[in-house]
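Students often ask why inverse folding is considered easier than folding. One informal answer: many sequences map to the same fold, so there is more than one right answer. In these notes we will look at a single instance of the problem. The structure comes first.
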């Protein structure tokens, strides 16, 4: 799943490549991913329009078109955007393709067909689940330590991993960077928010800022095509069984509310007695 550093990289690349381009035609191979909230069909609503704006809001990437039409994409678990230069082959399972006036193509690929593409009138987002309910933008000036402490109090009964993944509170941290943030802050993912000490709250706030910006730097540095998920820089995510880069202990995998989480049981000791003691060899 593309996360915030990935989406911001995609935004920058596509601004260079498709901003100002017109959509000549649309090819819909998998209508199941489309949600059209305008009177016209998706092909009629999009064809002939010029891409005038591209921006990111939480897990969504929005394309503002001429004619007051917006395309809002939530790539979800397996979705990818691919910019296909003229003469190149497409990559992945194409669901929708926008053919541009310079001969390039913008593909939305999703082999699981879980992603969603919304075609709506500009600024009319009520039909897009979770778009308008996004919490504080973690890269904005509004994300201060004071605001963060308010959110911690509001969500005090949640486990910390659940809290930082809640997009109605923080917009937006995905599973991979949530693991990296908690590792950096040395906090166990099943710690209840109410049990975070003031110094842990400060560390968590600093880690959110630092790790997301580190991720943005690493994704930019990789300079991969936008359909490639860059994860080589991860320290604990999907590193089960590997040595911790900080202390050498074995990275473990645990479940939190149906999601896999990866952590170091030594650097991130449990704050309460759990069913399993992950510090013991297995």
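Output (designed amino acids):
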């Amino acid at each position: 799943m593309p996360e915030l550093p990935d989406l911001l990289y995609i935004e920058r690349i596509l601004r260079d490549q498709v901003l100002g381009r017109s959509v000549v035609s649309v090819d819909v191979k998998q209508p199941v991913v489309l949600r059209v909230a305008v009177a016209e069909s998706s092909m009629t609503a999009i064809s002939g329009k010029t891409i005038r704006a591209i921006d990111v809001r939480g897990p969504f990437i929005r394309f503002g078109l001429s004619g007051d039409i917006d395309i809002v994409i939530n790539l979800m678990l397996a979705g990818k955007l691919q910019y296909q230069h003229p003469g190149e082959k497409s990559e992945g399972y194409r669901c929708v393709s926008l053919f541009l006036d310079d001969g390039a193509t913008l593909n939305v690929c999703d082999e699981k067909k879980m992603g969603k593409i919304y075609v709506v009138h500009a600024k009319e987002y009520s039909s897009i689940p979770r778009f308008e309910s996004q919490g504080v933008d973690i890269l904005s000036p509004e994300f201060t330590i004071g605001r963060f402490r308010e959110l911690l109090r509001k969500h005090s009964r949640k486990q910390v991993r659940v809290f930082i993944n809640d997009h109605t509170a923080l917009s937006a941290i995905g599973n991979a960077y949530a693991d990296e943030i908690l590792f950096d802050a040395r906090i166990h993912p099943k710690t209840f928010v109410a049990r975070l000490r003031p110094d842990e709250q400060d560390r968590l706030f600093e880690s959110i800022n630092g790790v997301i910006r580190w991720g943005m730097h690493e994704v930019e540095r990789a300079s991969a095509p936008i359909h490639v998920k860059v994860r080589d820089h991860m320290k604990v995510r999907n590193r089960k069984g590997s040595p911790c880069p900080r202390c050498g202990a074995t990275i473990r995998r645990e479940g939190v509310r149906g999601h896999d989480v990866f952590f170091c049981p030594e650097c991130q000791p449990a704050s309460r007695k759990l069913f399993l003691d992950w510090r013991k060899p297995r």
